[in-house]
Amino acid sequence: MIKEYKTIFQYAEIEHTIQKSRFIGYAKPVSDENEAIEFIESIKNKHKNATHNVPVYVIGQNFEVQKYSEDGEPAGTAGMPVLDMLKKEDIKYTAIVVTRYFGGIKLGTGGLVRAYTATAKLALAEAKIVEKVLHDIIKIRIEYSLLGKMQNELFNNGYTIKDTVFDDAVNIYAYSQVDRSDQLRAMTQNITSGKADISILDTLYLERLDGKLLAGKE
Asked: In the beta sheet, which residues pair with residue 96?
């Protein structure tokens, strides 16, 4: 598993007009090819009378699956430049459909490339590009007297506390990037003079937007 990759946060759609042609951009995060195909078919069914429904999707941490169609536009002017843009921006696990209703003015090959790429980029911006970062969920069990100090050190060192549970001791559940878990373990043992009980409960991807995790207390 790679430690970090880019994708989009949520489904989004945008619409704008270019030279009287109506362009509608749709973007959705997808986990596999079946989900991408299902999404594309739903947009095609929604716009059965559109002049073009141009689909593109990329699946896999190394772009193992990448598909596009020009859907009747000249070769290399619609689906291909959108696919190239996704790969250049290193955006993965994403499906896009750009729908066009022709407005009577031909855009030319360069104009089509710019129009489809611009529409896809607007849809991606609306969907919010995020980093998926591999994290460990770490359980730290400490004495009550160490709670304040432990919380401060976690916060000051950029770790995120997921939850805190109290019984006859304090159980802190924290998120740590996988390559910082050893550092967290060493820091905890230093704070507690080796008296903490530390264990990794799970490893999963968390989303980071503008440098901040979209995860916290539950």
From this structure: 27, 56
pLDDT tens-place string over residues 105-152 = 999 999 999 999 999 999 999 999 999 999 999 999 999 999 999 999
132-213: which CATH architecture?
A: 2-Layer Sandwich (3.30)
* Cα distance between residue 186 and residue 165, in whole Å: 22
CATH fold, domain 4-127, is: Ribosomal Protein S5; domain 2 (3.30.230)
Packing angle of the helix pair 181-191, 147-156 (nearest 10 deg): 150
**Residue 53 neighbours by CB distance under 10 Å:** 22
- Say whether 132-213 and 4-127 share the same fold: no
* Two tokens, residue 176: 């740590």
Quick one: tokens of 8?
Answer: 């989009």
Note the pLDDT tens digit of each residue in 18-70. Answer: 999 999 999 999 999 999 999 999 999 999 999 999 999 999 989 999 999 99
Token couple for 83: 């696919």
